[in-house]
Amino acid sequence: MGESDIKQCKGYKQLAAAVKKSYDDDPSRGFDKTLDWAVERAKHYAERTGIPASEILDAWEKDRNYWCVNYYQDAKQPLLDGTIKVFDTWSDLLNAIDKKQGFRCPACSGVSRDAYECSCDGCDWKVYGLLRDLGKGVRVFVKEAIRSDLIFMPVSWETSSHPSEEGEG
Predict the structure, then answer these.
(1) Number of domains in the chain
(2) Whether residue 149 is found in the same domain as residue 90
(3) Is the pLDDT of residue 29 over 80?
(4) DSSP letter string over the chain?
């Protein structure tokens, strides 16, 4: 995808307007770097997934419901490296996880029935909270949704090599 193609997509135009507004509000903060970062990260995702960068940026902007400078950062759009599990569909992801075995809570080490919130008695840890997964969860990316999620580690993945997973970027 050429540079001009991505600049024509709805996501780029929406993000450019948000960045401009932030930059106009306080030019000394350098918010204009957010747009360049987002475009480069969308291109990185495009290289790793085969999804056009314009579609990725469109999906991110559709999903974004808070300030662009906080949204576009490594914590939300990390590099697709060997630590992120990439799946074509939600169904592929669900098939790769044995939900009956549950998910390991990073806080209490118990087995939760939920991938995002601990269901163990006395623990209410949430992977989307301030301390997230304490470095013990896993990030997954689903191509059909153009979305990545941080989840508790599936117990079935603690000792397996994830045979159903597609190759990581």
Answers:
(1) 2
(2) yes
(3) no
(4) --HHHHHHSHHHHHHHHHHHHHHHH-GGG-TTHHHHHHHHHHHHHHHHH---HHHHHHHHHHH--S-HHHHSSTTTS----TTEEEESSHHHHHHHS-GGG-EE-TTT--EESSSSB--STT---BTTSTTTTTT-SEEEEEGGGTEEEEEPEEGGGSSS--TTSBPP-
79, part of any domain: no
- Structural domain of residue 18, as residue ranges? 3-71
- pLDDT 10s digits, 42-84: 999 999 999 999 999 999 999 999 999 899 999 889 999 888 9
Q: How many CB atoms lie within 10 A of CB 41?
A: 22
106 is a domain residue: yes
Q: Are residues 27 and 53 in the same domain?
A: yes
Residue 80 in contact with residue 45, Cβ under 8 Å?
yes
* pLDDT at residue 157 tops 90: yes
43's tokens: 């291109």
Q: What is the pLDDT of residues 99-136, one digit of tens each?
A: 899 999 999 999 999 999 999 999 999 999 989 999 99
The answer on 45 and 100 residing in a single domain is no
HSE-up of residue 67 (Cα within 13 Å, Cβ side) = 7
**One domain for residues 127 and 67:** no
**pTM for the whole structure:** 0.82
